[in-house]
C-alpha cells in the first residue's frame, strides 16, 4: 500500500496545494495549539511544507526545523531556508527513526500523514522516543464514509478510537480533539476529481471501473465527509 500512496502523491504533487483543503485546515489547527518556542522540531510527512508555512505565519521560534517525506516531488515543493533541513525517508522504517533519534529533537509533529502508518502504535512509540513534545493531526476511518458505503469499500485507515488508544500508549495527553467537515460538490464526477487531485484516494479507486462509472451516472453521492483528530502530548519515556 505504501508504494501506491507514494505514487499518488508523486503524480499529484503540484495539484496537492490547490485541492487539499482539509489538510490545510489541519496544519492550521496543529500550529495554533503549539507553544511559541519549539526548540529543534521535525515534521514527519512534511509534504510541500504546510506546517512550516503555518509556523512562519504564527512566528513560531525554533533552533532548527527538519522536514521528512518519502516523496522527492513533495520535498521539491517545500520552502527552503537557512535553519531548515529536508530529509527523504519513510516513517515506517526503523532505519529512518534510528537517524531521527540522533537529531536531539524537542518537538515532533505530523499533519495528515500518520493515518497511513503501517503500524501506528509503533510509529507513535518511535515518536515518543525521539522528542518530548508530540503534536499530530490524522484522518479517521469515517472519512469518505458515504462514498465507501456506496462503493462497498472498507476504509484503509485507522479509526479515531484506535488512533487515540495508540497515542495514549506513548504520550501523556495535553489535548485531544476531534473535528468533522463535509465538502459538497455539484456532481459525483467533480467529487472524484477532487479525490484524485488531493493526492490520496482513501481506497476509492480500488473500486471496479463499472462501479465508478455507475457512481457518476447515478450522481447520488456528491459530498465527502472528513473525520479527523488532533492529538498533543508529552512523551512517556523520552
Give a quick precis of the structure.
Helices cover 41% and strands 23% of the residues. The protein has 238 residues and is of the alpha/beta class.
| Derived structural class | alpha/beta
Helical amount among residues, as a percent range?
40-55%
Instruction: Report mean pLDDT, rounded to a whole number.
Output: 90
| CATH T-level fold name | Rossmann fold
What percent strand? 15-25%
Largest sheet: 7 strands, mixed
- Strand line-up across the major sheet: 3-2-1-4-5-7-6
Number of structurally distinct domains: 1
How far is the N terminus from the C terminus? 31 Å
Tally of strands = 7
Global geometry: globular
- What is the helix tally? 11
Q: What is the fourth-level CATH superfamily? A: Vaccinia Virus protein VP39
The unreliable regions are 1-14
* Run of helices and strands: HHHEHEHEHEHEHHEHHE
Global Rg? 18 Å
CATH architectural name: 3-Layer(aba) Sandwich
CATH class: Alpha Beta
